[in-house]
Amino acid sequence: MPPASFDERTGAEVREGLPPPLSDLSRLCIHTETTSPWKLPEAASAYERAGVPAITVWRESVAGHGPAEARRILEDHGLEIVSYVRGGFFAAASSAARRAAVAENVRVIEEAATLGAPLVVLVCGAVPGQPLETSRAQIRQGLEHIVPYAEAAGVRLGIEALHPVYADSRSAINTLRQANDLAETLDTPGLGVVVDVYHLWWDPDLRKEIARSGRNNRLFAFHICDWKTPTTHLLLDRGLMGEGCIPLRRIRGWMEEAGFEGHYEVEIFSEIYWREDQREFLEKIKRAYLAHT
Amino acid sequence: MPPASFDERTGAEVREGLPPPLSDLSRLCIHTETTSPWKLPEAASAYERAGVPAITVWRESVAGHGPAEARRILEDHGLEIVSYVRGGFFAAASSAARRAAVAENVRVIEEAATLGAPLVVLVCGAVPGQPLETSRAQIRQGLEHIVPYAEAAGVRLGIEALHPVYADSRSAINTLRQANDLAETLDTPGLGVVVDVYHLWWDPDLRKEIARSGRNNRLFAFHICDWKTPTTHLLLDRGLMGEGCIPLRRIRGWMEEAGFEGHYEVEIFSEIYWREDQREFLEKIKRAYLAHT
How confident is the model at residue B2 (pLDDT cuts 50, 70, 90)? Predict the structure, then answer.
């Protein structure tokens, strides 16, 4: 039974219906970076054997193959390709660097199309010491430049808001409200948002903003893992589902309420798990997925 | 000259007036925890000699003296006492632990009154795995219990919102909007908010919420330091003003716009600076304060 929840204004107990537990792996997707020690062919083969139906491909894992060969590898193993990670990083101090970022994003979009990935995930960028409003304006301008390429390639773009702990150097977009605002400002159906529980679980507006994304048909992807207490590394100490404090099943319920029908993507960066045997880690992922998502 | 800023929707450059640099130390206050290696008498003596006019006292630094003796020490050195840190931690899994937290806060209020501190800073608490709404309801209930004691003692209470990176275990109040909501719900003039730039600098609503706190006469304290890139420790790697990415002078301008007339309190937890000679560190604080606040 989940812990009781209370309305924060009235103190009254809230009986929120949770979705039923997952009974199979049909919506499971794993990010290649989650099993980072594996090269792409190893990962594809292991995922297939483990009954994982879908994969999100990190750009680093395609290096050495190219997207066309990567696509053949993944198709040979019957894996559905959910998204390509990652583009973005639009914020930069010089206009030359911002132009280079746009050009790089165009390449990412072309690679995604060749790979057969319907979605590119965008980590938007930030420059230490540059006002966040300035970075946000640069991000918007960068998006304006790449949206036509994405539309032409038939690839959707998903803005991933990053936890405020990354506001200094990785993303000036730190809440789902900001991601929704940005997606709506550009007003193109191919631009939406990515909900990652690691980044957003703490936000008191999360349920409301997930519902808003859903109403606007912008709920493109859902990334899962857990936030450990204590967290010992700012980037590489994510937990398996159930190991931390994120109310994952509630958030999945909010996603489903909002009409999300995509995959539940396991994205765990963990120096601890990367040191383990990756086949055993994959079995742990499956058990944690069924028990806690 | 500060970096140019741009409106994030229109891309137009924003020319925001910054307040003039500080020309003296008259509003400088230092937290005893900033110079943690010093015992209270050493800190008081060093602050006086360095021309620091005011001090915020951490509870740990009073241990071994008691608040009455601590008050005499600080008065002997002519230091104004700005606040007493810290109460709170209302969220707890058992009702016995929540009652104990209330009792502990009553003691903190009594100590603050004896010390002559007009304000107690509250870090509100969170329980790993407990829904944040539940923690927030417990926080509200804890505040309801202690407000009458604070009023009777003539001590104000300041809710400090903590960075979302601490939402798992230290505070379920993570934005100034939440702190303002909570202070307004209880509707007593002795309950207000503490703005700490380390916790709040990233928030796109910060200027608006500072203005709201000011309109409601709830802007009780202002804590300063900087956010370093990279930050290597989640608790103990804060930077000196100017070492990181926080637009400190802009935020000071927002505080002044909102009518804040209190001290600028230097609160730096840093294993790096604590290893240095604390007199040299104090001189660095003064220089950084004048150059970057």
Answer: very low
Would you say residue A158 has pLDDT above 60?
yes
Amino acid in the structure at residue B14: V
Task: State the pLDDT confidence band at B1, using cuts at 50, 70 and 90.
Answer: very low
B229, amino acid identity:
T
Omega before residue B230 within 30° of 0, cis: yes
Interface contact flag, A202 B167, Cβ < 8 Å: yes
Closest CA to A89 of A33, A146, A165: A146
Does the beta carbon of B187 lie under 8 angstroms from any beta carbon of chain A? no
**CB-based contact, A100 to chain B, within 8 Å:** no
Interface contact flag, B137 A11, Cβ < 8 Å: yes
**Rounded distance between C-alpha atoms, residue A191 and residue A107, angstroms:** 17
Task: Tell me the per-residue pLDDT of B256-276, one tens digit each, with 9 for 90 and over.
Answer: 999 999 999 999 999 999 999
- Is the CB of B245 less than 8 angstroms away from the CB of A128? yes
Does A235 touch chain B if contact means CB atoms closer than 8 Å?
no
pTM of the model: 0.94
Any chain B CB within 8 A of the CB of A5?
Answer: yes
Q: Which residue of A has its CA nearest to B178?
A: A204
Write down the ipTM of this complex: 0.93
What does residue B123 show for φ and ψ, rounded to 5 degrees? -100, 115
Residue A203 sits at the chain B interface (C-beta within 8 Å): yes
In the structure, what pLDDT confidence band is assigned to residue A2 with cuts at 50, 70 and 90? very low
Cβ of B164 and A168 within 8 Å?
A: no
CB A249 within 8 A of CB A16: no
Reduce the secondary structure of chain A to three states and give it as a string. Answer: CCCCEECCCCCCEECCCCCCCCCCCCCEEEEHHHHCCCCHHHHHHHHHHHCCCEEEEEHHHHCCCCHHHHHHHHHHCCCEEEEEEEEECCCCCCHHHHHHHHHHHHHHHHHHHHHCCCEEEEECECCCCCCHHHHHHHHHHHHHHHHHHHHHHCCEEEEECCCHHHCCCCECCCCHHHHHHHHHHHCCCCEEEEEEHHHHCCCCCHHHHHHHHHHCCCEEEEEECECCCCCCCCCCECECCCCCCCCHHHHHHHHHHCCCCCCEEECCCEHHHHCCCHHHHHHHHHHHHHHHC
Domain A23-292: CATH superfamily is: Divalent-metal-dependent TIM barrel enzymes (3.20.20.150)
Domains of chain B, by residue range, sit at 27-271+278-292
Instruction: Tell me, yes or no, if A136 comes closer than 8 A to chain B by beta carbon.
Output: yes
* Cα–Cα distance, A149 to A207 (Å, whole number): 32
| Closest partner CB to B128 (pick from A4, A14, A229) | A229
Cα–Cα nearest to A195, from A251, A116, A145, A149: A251
Determine how many CB atoms are found less than 10 A away from the CB of residue A169.
16
Give, in words, the CATH class of B27-271+278-292. Answer: alpha beta
Neighboring chain A residues of B136 at a CB cutoff of 8 Å: 8
Interface contact B164-A167, CB threshold 8 A: no
Across residues B99-113, what is the average pLDDT?
Answer: 98
